[in-house]
């Protein structure tokens, strides 16, 4: 055989082998489905798209993302994930509280520090976050992949509020977990649990007189248009969680499990950069977009009056979650102390 025809034959074989490999990859390539609770460009959306970027750059799999409303409310996407219709979901503890009561720990006011770098270090290092919570989620058929902060909570009200007394007779919307209702009762208000889709309309029609959310969301959802008085109380952070259906996750190859874990780590690193300075930028946009907006930052003395009501919420948390909740809270506090002492 001449060397040219030998080469042609070899080239033919490797082309065949390559085609075979590509076919095998195509067979293994999956299209995964991921839903979250927010709109285009919001924090959960950025996280989801970074997760997708990593998955698609490092495998043949593809990821389809569904934003708020495309598949329903937060509770709907969680149900679809538990049923295996969706592979991944981002649901915030604000809504997970009824499924996993311990997730309500984030609503004990003044438990979390206000300083962002300490908060981030806590999410990175905490045993409660990285070891205890995955176990709790696992009992509900969920593989917890990441918990991350979105921004400090700010209250918006129909008039500026600086004391618990001024909250009296004000209906404040809360996400649908019982502990958050306890927090707003303790703050002197009348808590009103509502799914996200009803909040803007309820503020507009004065069915409720306020709500709480991070600034980027108050801006992107236009909440300041119907609830223009922003009050910085310093009482907590909006935290969220991203997870997979556990049967789906357990059925993945070790390579794909690592891919998914690495993609979640990658998205976390990107989100930390994304939220840095986000609140300030959003506040500037809000101020530019409305003359009605007022900004009240509670001073230390005013904060003390709200903080004094935190122990009663902590007590309720333990009543709702028993020994396990008590242990989790102990670990949470220990983890916080460690990052605050650094
Ligand atoms: O208040 C809420 O319900 C929504 N807030 C944020 C920041 N993300 C999603 C959630 O549904």
Automatic annotation (TrEMBL):
Entry's CDD domains? PBP2_TRAP_UehA_TeaA
Extent of the signal sequence? 1-29
Q: Which UniProt keywords apply?
A: Signal, Transport
| Biological process, per Gene Ontology | transmembrane transport
Source taxon at top rank: Bacteria
Q: Which Pfam families match?
A: DctP
Supply the InterPro entries for this chain. DctP_fam, TRAP_DctP_sf
Q: Does the keyword Cytoplasm apply?
A: no
Q: Which NCBIfam families match?
A: TRAP_S1
Query: What family classification does the UniProt entry report for this protein?
Result: Belongs to the bacterial solute-binding protein 7 family.
UniProt-recorded name of the protein: C4-dicarboxylate ABC transporter
Species per Swiss-Prot/TrEMBL record: Marinobacter fuscus
């Amino acid at each position: 055989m001449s060397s040219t025809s030998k080469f042609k034959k070899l080239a033919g074989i490797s082309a065949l082998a390559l085609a075979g490999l590509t076919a095998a990859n195509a067979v293994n390539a999956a299209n995964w489905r991921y839903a979250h609770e927010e709109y285009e460009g919001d924090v959960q959306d950025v996280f989801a798209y970074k997760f997708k970027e990593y998955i698609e750059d490092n495998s043949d799999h593809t990821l389809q993302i569904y934003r708020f409303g495309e598949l329903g409310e937060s509770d709907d996407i969680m149900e679809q994930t538990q049923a295996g219709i969706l592979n991944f979901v981002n649901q915030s503890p604000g809504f997970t509280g009824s499924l996993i009561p311990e997730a309500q720990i984030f609503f004990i006011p003044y438990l979390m520090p206000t300083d962002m770098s300490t908060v981030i270090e806590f999410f990175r290092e905490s045993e409660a976050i990285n070891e205890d919570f995955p176990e709790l989620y696992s009992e509900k058929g969920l593989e917890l992949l990441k918990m991350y902060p979105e921004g400090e909570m700010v209250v918006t009200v129909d008039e500026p509020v600086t004391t618990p007394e001024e909250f009296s007779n004000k209906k404040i919307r809360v996400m649908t977990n019982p502990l958050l209702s306890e927090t707003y009762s303790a703050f002197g208000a009348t808590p009103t649990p509502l799914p996200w889709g009803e909040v803007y309309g309820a503020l507009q029609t004065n069915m409720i007189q306020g709500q709480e959310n991070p600034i980027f969301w108050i801006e992107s959802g236009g909440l300041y248009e119907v609830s223009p008085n922003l009050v910085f109380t310093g009482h907590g952070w909006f935290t969220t969680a991203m997870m997979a259906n556990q049967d789906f996750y357990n059925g993945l190859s070790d390579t794909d499990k690592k891919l998914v874990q690495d993609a979640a780590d990658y998205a976390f690193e990107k989100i930390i950069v994304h939220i840095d300075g986000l609140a300030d930028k959003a506040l500037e946009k809000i101020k530019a977009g409305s003359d009605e907006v007022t900004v009240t930052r509670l001073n230390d003395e005013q904060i003390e009056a709200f903080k004094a009501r935190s122990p009663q919420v902590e007590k309720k948390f333990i009543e709702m979650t028993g020994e396990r909740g008590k242990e989790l809270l102990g670990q949470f506090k220990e983890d916080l102390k460690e990052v605050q002492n650094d």
